[in-house]
Write a structure and sequence with these properties.
With 170 residues, this protein is an alpha+beta fold. The chain contains four helices and seven strands, in the order αββαβββββαα. Strand 6 and strand 7 form a beta hairpin. The structure holds nickel (II) ion. The site of nickel (II) ion (NI) has 5 residues, from helix 3.
Length: 170
């Protein structure tokens, strides 16, 4: 197992439409395990493959958090098959350090996915789990939480990033 580097905004890798996974081979299994480790290490509750630079449809989620690690999911080719209701909350993202923004989501979703043994599952999610799944599945289509923000908020974050980069370059 290994901790992978997180790809950060505005890297164009985060904007790619990810490919379906057609075979769950050793490389995919290792990717899933590394992503879980990386997610816990970086104190996240969800991670999508493009965030570690792999343009494939794989996500990891554990809403119990990096301390408990009680409910890990590795989902291959996750797909939302049903949405219900509406909710809005503030979200952050490991690929957007220092950014938080309000996002409107479905309140509950049904998601179909394969586990690392290739077995198909259907899971009903609500509350934080539902929000997290929608956030990670958005990543697989190149969509980020900053896309839900207004122009001014986006611009302010980009300026903040530029200042940070200048600071690092010194
Ligand atoms: Ni994210």
């Amino acid at each position: 197992m290994a901790i992978r580097n997180i790809v950060c905004y505005p890297d164009p890798l985060l904007r790619k439409k990810c490919e379906e996974i057609t075979a769950i081979d050793d490389e995919i299994k290792r990717l899933g395990e590394d992503m879980l480790d990386t997610m816990y290490e970086k104190k996240g509750i969800g991670l999508a493959a493009p965030q570690v630079g792999v343009i494939k449809r794989l996500i990891t989620v554990d809403i119990s958090g990096p301390e408990k690690r009680e409910n890990p999911f590795v989902m291959v080719n996750p797909e939302i098959v049903e949405k219900k209701g509406e909710t809005e909350g503030e979200e952050g993202c490991l690929s957007l350090p220092g950014f938080k923004g309000k996002v409107k989501r479905a309140a509950a979703v049904k998601v179909r996915y394969l586990d690392l043994d290739g077995e198909e599952h259907l899971v009903d999610a609500d509350e934080l789990f539902a929000i997290c799944l929608q956030h990670e599945i958005d990543h697989l289509d190149g969509k980020l939480i900053i896309d839900y923000a207004g122009r001014l908020k986006k611009k302010m974050y980009e300026n903040k990033l530029k200042k940070l980069q200048k600071h690092r370059a010194r």
